[in-house]
Amino acid sequence: MRERQMLDDGINAVRGLSAALEDNVGLIELGEEEGDDSVVREAEAALKALSEDVAARQVETLLSGEADSNDTYLEVHAGAGGTESQDWAQMLLRMYTRWADRHGMKVEVLEMHDGEEAGIKSATLLIKGRNAYGWLKTESGVHRLVRISPFDSNARRHTSFASAWVYPVVDDTIAIDIPESEVRIDTYRASGAGGQHVNTTDSAVRITHIPSGIVVQCQKERSQHKNRATAWEMLRSRLYEEELKKREEAASATEASKTDIGWGHQIRSYVLQPYQLVKDLRTGVESTSPQDVLDGDLDTFMEASLSQRIEGGAGAEVEDID
Asked: How far, in whole angstroms, is CA 273 from its chain's centroid?
């Protein structure tokens, strides 16, 4: 039913765009014949708005992958560097939450480990919405921040790293069999808000898939049983995402991006000092308004990386920035 609805929406959109195009072209011809400039201007403005709608829908056609329409998990991990990187990880988490809010998507926090002084060590979000995985899938990788540290009394410039990892929620129609002999399940006490119950029960669950080394964890619910069920779903999704990457012949590059949260693996740099610039190191797309980007204005970066991925080329090499 979901696939049918998507096809219906697509067909109706094309028909609507075609009809609007014909109507406005006709209005322009009529206005020119009658010498009515106001009608011509109105129709031209409508055509401009129509072209923007077409451009937006053209991007939607890039989201045709097997799992692109699915909901998605998004993990954020701080890199080396203690408080600096943990604060940056929290900024990234906020950025993606803001992006999801802009697109009317629902965000659930499945687990979060707070930093010692500020920020977070790691967190996992469940983002629900149309094409959530399709939009976010190219965001996996290391993100680099350059700024004057608010934690440095000498106001020196610091470089921090944090990583994002995106994988789709597995559909009910996809069967993934994981032998229990291949996993290790640990329980522990959840951290963060939650009251006295959090501190007295081992409700949080961590599952390690031994052959692949994949680790997932959930502490959202008070019930260990519910957290265990969610963690199993996350593990199936991670394994499914790995298989999708292999089909795209990108497994080696993907694994390389996970090996180290630091130099040489970043996909995007966010410079707040000494100048203002966000630059995607894969596509060359730039923004001179980092605050807008950190507030969730990511569509331009996502569209460019999706286009590059669909075209199948790595694109021109882009120089790193200080």
From this structure: 25
Please state, in angstroms and as integers, the Cα–Cα distance from residue 109 to each residue in 4, 78, 219, 304, following that order: 30, 17, 9, 28
User: What pLDDT does 196 receive?
Assistant: 47
Angstrom CA distances, 172 to 53, 223, 236, 237, stand at 33, 23, 11, 11
For residue 37, give the 3-state DSSP assignment: helix
Under DSSP, the state recorded for 65 is: S
Same fold, 72-167+263-311 and 180-247: no
| pTM, entire model | 0.68
- Give the separation between CA 214 and CA 253, rounded to whole angstroms: 17
What is the per-residue pLDDT for 249?
Answer: 55
Within 10 angstroms of residue 54's Cβ, the number of other Cβ atoms is 14
213-234: burial string, b at 16+ Cβ within 10 Å, e else: ebbbbbbbbeebeebbebbbbb
Fold observed for domain 72-167+263-311: Alpha-Beta Plaits (3.30.70)
* Span of 103-117, 142-156, 182-196, 220-234 with lowest mean pLDDT: 182-196
Q: Enumerate the domain spans of the chain.
A: 2-60, 72-167+263-311, 180-247
State yes or no: pLDDT of 6 exceeds 90.
Answer: no
The DSSP code sequence of 74-129 is: EEEEE-SSTHHHHHHHHHHHHHHHHHHHHTT-EEEEEEEEE-SSSSEEEEEEEEES
Classify 180-247 by CATH class. Answer: alpha beta
